[in-house]
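=== Structure Prediction Worksheet ===
Name of assembly: unnamed complex
Input type: mixed (protein and possibly other molecules)
Chain count: two
Listed entries:
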Amino acid sequence: MTLIPPENLERFTQAPASLELYRITKKFGDFTAADEISLTVPPGTVHALLGENGAGKSTLVKCVMGFHPATSGEIMVGGHVQEIQHPSDARKYGIGMVYQHFTLVPSMTVTENLVLSRPDVPAAVNWKQETARLEEFMATEAPFKVPLHKRASELAAGEKQKTEILKQLYLKSRILILDEPTSVLTPAEATEVLALLRQMTVAGKLSIIIITHKFREVFSFADDVTVLRRGKLAGQGKVKELDRDTLAAMMMGGASEAKRAPSAPPATGPKPTAPASTRRTALRVKQLSVLGDNGITAVKDVSFELAAGEVLGIAGVAGNGQRELMEVLGGQRPAASGTLEAHDQPYRGTRRDILTHQFHTLPEEPLRNACAPMLSVAENIALRTFDQPPQARWKWLLNFRAIRKSALPLIEAYSIKTRGPDTPIRDLSGGNVQRAILARELSTRPIKILVVSEPCFGLDFAATDFVHQKITEARDRGVAVLVVSSDLDELLKITDRLLVMSGGTITYETPTATADVAVIGSHMAGHG
Amino acid sequence: MESFWLVTLAILAGAVRGGTPFLFVSLGECLTEKSGKINLGQEGSLLAGAMTAYAVSHHSGSPWYGVLAAMGTGMALGLLFAWLAQLPRTNDIAVGIALMLFGSGIAFFFGKPYIQPSAPLLPGIPLGAWSSSSQIQAALRICPLFFLGLLTAFFLAWFLRSTRWGLQIRAAGDQPSAARALGISLKSVRTWAAMAGSGLAAVGGSYLSLYYPGAWTEAISGGQGLMAVALVIFARWDPKMCLVASLLFGGAQSVGPALQAAGIQTGYYLWNASPYVLTLIVMIITCSTKKSLAGAPGALATGE
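=== Predicted Assembly ===
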């Protein structure tokens, strides 16, 4: 474990101030996104903000950062009430935020990015002088190193995250707000970054508010925790005095136990008993290589087999070729070399092939990759079947009444929340788009192969359970399922066998039942 | 042999003479695209600039007032572009095409009375006065605007690399979300970039009407404003490469006339098409469905 040299810690002469939020309320029209929330962050502590998506965590910290001033309530920095109307006010009080989506400009070097982030960028930049100053900052104050001359686009996710944190330290922020900082990191990178930050808070040089939905991080990293649910304070306290079940109950509310119980058994439910070798191979990928957007090989010589009735997971940090692999399987990107076979026949992704092999895909960001956003929910659900009777006569004349009629039971069965079947699908929330696409891909025919990517990204607990349940049900019906996900916990929960993808190749394979998270993590990081 | 040298000299001179408008338009477009919007209306700015420059020079008697007035017209059109292209649910390509038609429309409408009268033109600097050869003298007679363009290219390269505004423009064009998080106002950055870019294009237009060919006609541009957009792609959004590419296109444009002057008539019209052929070739070479362009600002054509 890397540690910050004590002399570097000593350089941080400026200690963080205490931060207090008092009855912060934020309204958007009639909707109350944050309702009278109070919390205190004493200097040198880590405060975790826990909650599902849409619980009001981001709304709350955006009030502190001055992106949208609170409707009512007070913010106290160092015991004094301060007006924070604009991000520059927050910066003045030493409050800085590290975003979930990186705010580095990809074509610029780390040096350029750091200089650009300063509030007082000189009119004409003297690069020699700036580079010298940054090198000194790196040598003395910085708790970890990043290559200054590299372009941000060349950095790995972990290095980007470190750069974002360094940027805040360089700007002399002593109260850091981290928005799900580990969502893009490998387990090892996450542990390292959090440990370094922890060391700085223990030394009293930094205070941290961390937004998360991972219990593991709360217990290993935070001193205090505030749980939000639907914009309201659901619980608060010292982490030491709380346990996992109490936190889960706070986060999910009273109905949580009832909601979680029925879905849990199918997820871990009866696994097929036949050994993998005797089951029929549904999908075979042979020495597949794919070029990425920049023309550089993104997937290199990948081969694997997927049997009917199994869930195969591909783990890996986002950006290691999974997206390109998915796009080839979905017919959205040509392969540079290699072949795909479905049921021992060549597979080319034509509409006829899709129909013959019942090959269905659920790509990541479905609104962008699997929908016609302007078309209605019913039309999007019909995209696989619109050219078959009864939705089409003579294979070309569409029958919109039949399309609507066949969508209605699916909207019901998959509990898609929409004003009606004619609402444009882009008006739906992320979870409901996911449900609609799942309805389309799972319901239409006796499907045989299902390929899904990041099926639960950005979904709340209930929706995640629903999706997992549907995937497991499909597996039990004998469907061959491939799941690509950067969420290792998810893969451990729903898959039978795991592959690890790193740097465009498959680096590791293990049955999920005997998988070792540490080994998987080191393969994800590219040194296995 | 002598005709070979004459043709070469004529092409080199033509590269400078014909490349100058390309240079101004492409530098302007480069600046605008660096901020994240594509302005296809540069053709309109070019024509409006050419007309304004000629008219103001005619009335004021000084071609330099004409150049300044052209710049003002261009900046006004740039402001219009920036405003329209940043309204919600608009698209910069569509707005650009509209402004291309609008700019040429007003140029033709207000330019009708200036087709006949003559206006004082920009002087050429006689750098070839030492030679007795009239061809060399003609070839080395260079408009001061070319040198201004040369300076602008190097200035713009430095500006984008080493100034606060340059960094902000690049951030806005490459990663708008990052720029927003840094407190940079996308709207004002892009508005200024579009205004300056369109102003530069209009200066290119003033070169057309006040130096070469040196008269106001409706056919004066011949699509150079549009070709300059292709040229920016060719130059990989690098101002210094814009200079190289402009000279190349200018040279290609003068192949036909140079051959004709040397007495070679074969394929005159075919040679005149060479800049257009070059545009197509550039497009084919640089565009691919399999990879995105290196150096392209990340926000281009994303609607962000």
